[in-house]
Amino acid sequence: MKKLLGMTLLLIMLVVAICTFQWFTHPDHSITFLSSVNLCNLAQRIGLLGIYALGAGIVILSGGIDLSIGSVMAFVGVAVAMLTVAGWNPFVASALVVLCCVLLGCWHGFLVGRIKLQPFIATLASLLLLRGLARGIPNGIAQTISHEPFAFLGNGSYLGIPITFWLLIIIALILGFLMNFTVYGRYLYAIGRNAEAVRYSGIKVNRVRTLAFVICAVLAGVAGVLELSLNHEIQPAQSALMYEMWAIAAAVLGGCSLRGGEGSVLGVIIGAMLIRVMDNGMNLVGVSSEWQWAVIGVIVLGGVIADAAYKLRAANKT
Amino acid sequence: MGESTALLQMQNITKRFPGVLALNGVDLDLREGEILGLIGENGAGKSTLMRILGGDYPADSGDIVICGKQAQITDVQHSIALGVSIIYQELNLAPNLDIASNIFLGREPAWGALGIVDSRALYSKAAEIAGRVGISAPMNTLVETLSIGEQQLVEIAKALSVDSGILVLDEPTSSLSPAEASKLFEVMRGLKNAGVSMIYISHRLAEIRELCDRVVVLRDGERVGELSGDRICPEEMVRLMVGRDISRFFPEHGRHAEGDTVLMVRDLSYRGGRDVVNFDLRAGEILGIAGLVGAGRTELVEALFGVEPKHDGEVQVMGENVEIRAPADAINVGMGLVPEDRKALGVILEMPVTENISLPGIGNYNPPFMDRNKEKEVAVELVDRLEIKTPSLNQLVQFLSGGNQQKVALAKWLGISPKILILDEPTRGIDVGSKSEIYRLIRELADDGMGVIMVSSEMDEIIGLSDRVMVMHEGKETGILDRADINEQNIMHLATGGSQA
Q1: pTM for this structure?
Q2: Which of A19, A21, A130, B398 could, after both became Cys, cross-link A75 (CB 3.0–4.6 A)?
């Protein structure tokens, strides 16, 4: 809880800093950060990152990790685009492909639960495999689609709020309900802390773990569809590259511990906001986007070091 | 005592661990060229004494004299330099290296300062030492391809390669076949004739009699006697190892126990099919399972509970055949297990008391939803009934005392009222007060009609609490004792491989 407060505080400070900077540096004291165009743009990007970061967060919570997110997004994008080009309705194609993500999640659950692979390795294989399929099947050629209603998913807005952000809210509510009001949520936290003890208590650990992987794969699939809709095209080699790292960074910033058993839906969303506000702010104050990764890297490091130091102090007190 | 020939003297050794006096003024002397047996029940202090000799940790007080010289053993390397080699049950070999490399690991013959290994010298020296302990495999055989018995010989060869005058073997035969064991004894006799002195720790009294010149017996951290010559016989050894008053904090025995058979186990084989067990459990009784460390008791109850899949055999609960493949199946047919390793398996330390207690049951309250009211209700009732001392229901279990943690591990199961409750070492490492409360609780549960299985290495507990006792030795039941026959002599007799009269 304290960590969540700390991150929220950091987020507010960041927003204030950006606004102050703009107020002083702009001759007309205009704050473009707060302009509706910018906020809308920001919300759209937060929505997208939030959706797949939540998936990463749930797997991390259960004590695992999923490295395949970016590749899933690229694969889904390529698949939907190619089906659309082949004459399918893009919505139908999307539904079908996202459904296939359920199978992928089950596959990860099987590899980790039955074959006893480490989640890192199992999903690393998928990272390579799916990216390879996404590049190989269209032979590396970018796929472009134009379909007005489909483009609305990624670009449109309702009541002034982008659709992606609405989707994030809906997904967050569903996951929040799952985590807090159903036994699966309790099991996920418990497994992240001590999976063996949970198994000895008669819970089918593999099923719960699989559930986490399925949620993550499906959310990555949804994000892949949105990404395609947003850009009207997909570059097999470049699209969604390294997005799993942004997802993990958002989850960790938001309070998930890679040891498992810690984290919350709200925390992950705050983590996603931090990252997006940070790079939006850098754009606005004129820092070259080439520096983006370095800055986010520093922030993630700072966040986890602060957390570790806090825990060390707490441990020394007792 | 032949003072002049004593190679090693440990005098007045005392060692205290938090809450336990592990060794209390123990003397031990080893003469040149003898095999000295060191025996005692689990926890008597044998291993502690040998770990002090091996430099794992220092004694709190007492002297060690080796070859007439006072020795302050600081660490393992120092102990080896003094000529002491200890071969533990878990072997310390590099499985991916060959025999010769293992024998000279860290002391490879080398050319000059560059440390280039002189392979020819390595293999010829190794072969010479290996010959002395009867290793027949070629020196370039990988250790992982050897049997456990052969690996043990490699350990002994390694010890000889540093000119150890004192060799300690800690239960070397526990995982050997009879043929391998007799080969080991042959090697040991050969070494003895060559002037090596050995300390031999074993629970197998027949082996002790066959092999040892003298025997020192420990009990509860004290030296209680020494036997030599003809007096080394199982009866005498058992008499010394046991024989003490059982403290009076056990509850009255049950109203007992002509309840229905709740559990019937027939030809259950586990540990990959090596071991087979048969027994029954009736409602309202406490069935103790006794045996020495390594007898397979924990593995048996874990197989029964579905943690490790059983290999073969039949299990009936309330007269019906059941197939148990996972703990979830066992719980469905009415079992509960409080595992031996409380902190790793019994509770989740970083979770609150309430959530620990509700873990097995919460899925049944109102699935798939989490019924927090019911959860709290159950927790409040059980915390009260078991007198769990916690500042609040939301306290993390890691901040409770060992005894209260154990009560939480028990409360988990009481929340779902199993018909069969299995307790594996229910009072390990907890204080005396909590112990007697847990004993009383176990008896209450049995009186209420539960069938209780209690695995324990504490003789007092087995005798004080059990209505019947099944004794195990090397994975098999060697006998089931009824109330009237439960005493330390009978249990130790069966636990060391004797047969039921």
Answers
A1: 0.77
A2: A130
Task: Report, in angstroms and rounded to the nearest whole number, the Rg of chain A calculated over CA atoms.
Answer: 20
DSSP B336-350: EEE-S-IIIII--TT
Amino acid A251 reads: A
Cβ contact A186–B355 (<8 Å): yes
Tens of pLDDT, residue by residue over B209-228, are 989 999 999 988 899 999 99
Question: And the tokens for B348?
Answer: 């989740």
User: 3-class DSSP state for residue B388?
Assistant: coil
Name chain B contacts of A181, Cβ cutoff 8 Å: 369-370
B247 — phi, psi (to 5°)?
A: -60, 155
Convert chain A into a string of H (helix), E (strand) and C (coil).
CHHHHHHHHHHHHHHHHHHHHHHHHCCCCCCHHHCHHHHHHHHHHHHHHHHHHHHHHHHHHCCCCCCCHHHHHHHHHHHHHHHHHCCCCHHHHHHHHHHHHHHHHHHHHHHHHCCCCCHHHHHHHHHHHHHHHHHHCCCCCCEECCCHHHHHHHHCEECCEEHHHHHHHHHHHHHHHHHHHEHHHHHHHHHHHHHHHHHHCCCCHHHHHHHHHHHHHHHHHHHHHHHHHHHCEECCCCCCCCHHHHHHHHHHHCCCCCCCCCCCHHHHHHHHHHHHHHHHHHHHCCCCHHHHHHHHHHHHHHHHHHHHHHHHHHHHHC
Contact A197 B344 (CB under 8 A): yes
Name the residue among A182, A194, A203 with its Cβ closest to that of B328. A203
**Cβ separation A197–B412 shorter than 8 A:** no
d(CA A138, CA A150): 21
**Amino acid B246: pLDDT:** 42
CA distance B310 to chain A (A): 16
Joined together, the tokens standing for residue A283 give: 């754009």
Q: Which residues in chain B have Cβ-Cβ distances shorter than 8 Å to A194?
A: 344, 348-350
* Both tokens assigned to A117: 């692979």
Across the interface, of B327, B349, B351, the residue whose CB is closest to A200 is B327
- Match 């190892």 to its residue by tokens: B241
CA distance B379 to B386: 10
From the list B363, B302, B306, the residue with the least C-alpha distance to B338 is B302
B289 torsion bin: left (phi>0), alpha (psi -120 to 50), beta (else):
beta
Searching chain A, which residue's CA lies closest to the CA of residue B302?
A200
Kindly list the distances between the CA atom of residue B215 and the CA atoms of A298, B88, B207, in Å, as whole numbers in the listed order. Answer: 66, 19, 12
pLDDT score recorded for residue A108: 97
Q: What is the mean pLDDT of residues B121-131?
A: 91
Cα separation, B309 vs B458, whole angstroms = 27
pLDDT in tens, A156-170: 999 999 999 999 999
A178 touches chain B (CB under 8 A): no
CB-based contacts of A234: which residues, under 8 Å, 6+ apart?
A74, A77, A78, A81, A142, A143, A227, A228
DSSP B113: T
Q: How far is B458 from chain A (nearest CA, A)?
A: 24
Residues of A in contact with B369 (CB under 8 A): 181-183
DSSP state letters, B275-293? EEEEEEEETT-EEEEEE-T
Q: Taken in order B157, B162, B163, B168, is the CA torsion positive or negative?
A: negative
Q: Does B326 touch chain A (CB under 8 A)?
A: yes
- Asked if B345's CB is within 8 angstroms of A197's CB, the reply is yes
Measured between alpha carbons, how far is A11 from A280 in angstroms, rounded to an integer?
13
pLDDT, one tens digit per residue, over A75-93 is 999 999 999 999 999 999 9
- Looking at CA atoms only, how far is residue B369 from chain A in angstroms? 4
- The backbone torsions φ and ψ at residue B66, rounded to the nearest 5 degrees and listed phi first, read -120, 125
Residue A17 has pLDDT above 90, yes or no: yes
Is residue B149 very low, low, confident or very high in pLDDT (cuts 50, 70, 90)?
confident
